[in-house]
Amino acid sequence: MNTPKRSFIPAFALGLLFGFGLCLSGMTQPTKVQGFLDVFGHWDPSLALVMGGAVAVGLVGFWLSRRLDQSLLGEPFKFPPESGVDGQLLIGSAIFGVGWGLSGVCPGPAIVNLALFGEKAVIFAAAMFGGMALEKLFALRARIRQVEEGN
Amino acid sequence: MQIDWQNFTPLSALAGGATIGLAAGLCALLLGRVAGVSGILAGLAPPRPGDVGWRLAFVAGLLAAPLAFALAWPVAAPEFDASAATLVLAGLLVGFGARLGSGCTSGHGVCGLSRLSPRSAVATATFMGAALLTVFFVRHIVQ
């Protein structure tokens, strides 16, 4: 289960590359993201090309990973199972979308922008961590209730 | 619809996107993990022994990225149209929704679509749709 220490440096490099791509793509700029989402106004199609470029390259990586028994660093693959569409997926994604539209910020850029110490970036990231904690609390409460009903 | 040619940046968008996809693909190949930022963050609290280091290292890489980028190109400070109060609400929704829906733009969008996951395709269409409607409402109905 444990991810050994030899994965730390690659993980740092991957985060760095991922964040570098976000900076280069312009997606760390909330107004640019909202410019894409504003299809009924002055539409900036850039985000579509970011997604297209990312998926085109990502497809190759995930396709190659399917031909391996374990990762190149000797880890077992820990991809989430394809568990089908349910209410949680739809409601959660819709809630996330509303927040993304209101701010123009999703979790990756939220972290990257934290490094620049802007006041609003810090406010957003703090609220985002709060939202994640709230979800964890709700899930925990639901599980406790389930256990109680089971008894 | 009117295309905003002034702000459209096709080359840097494609190059940046390809870089993101490269990071996601290498993350799958090297670590055997999906590079979903909200999932990587959520796995830190509560921390599980042996599952913390790579997550912290990835987040540290994200934080170091704008500093590395600044060595090559100027980094523009992010501009937010939203007020601080709106950002608090939006941040809560983004954090809560991404966890409830098991992923965000990176996990479902980039990695899920790259894995050809129908579940992630539905999630991506849902949050894109909700975000489009939200921006339409904020920019063209309220204002």
Provide an overview of this structure.
The complex is a heterodimer of chains A (151) and B (143). With 151 residues, chain A is an all-alpha fold. Chain A is built from six helices and one strand, in the order H-H-E-H-H-H-H. The relative contact order of chain A is 0.09. Chain B is an all-alpha fold and 143 residues long. Chain B has one domain. Chain B is 70% helix and 1% strand. Chain B contains six helices and one strand, in the order E-H-H-H-H-H-H. Strand 1 of chain A pairs parallel with strand 1 of chain B.
Regions of chain A with pLDDT < 50 over 5+ consecutive residues?
A: none
Cα distance spanning the termini of chain A: 31 Å
Strand percent estimate of chain B: under 5%
Number of separate structural domains of chain A: 1
The count of helical stretches of chain B stands at 6
Characterize the main sheet of chain A. none
Q: How would you sum up the global shape of chain A? A: globular
Proportion of residues in helical segments of chain A: 55-70%
Provide mean pLDDT of chain A, rounded: 94
Q: What are the low-pLDDT stretches of chain B, counting only 5+ consecutive residues below 50?
A: none
Radius of gyration of chain A: 19 Å
- Number of E-type strands of chain B: 1
Q: How many strands appear in the DSSP assignment of chain A?
A: 1
Secondary-structure content class of chain B: mainly alpha
Taken from the alpha-carbon principal axes, the silhouette of chain B is: globular
Number of domains of chain B: 1
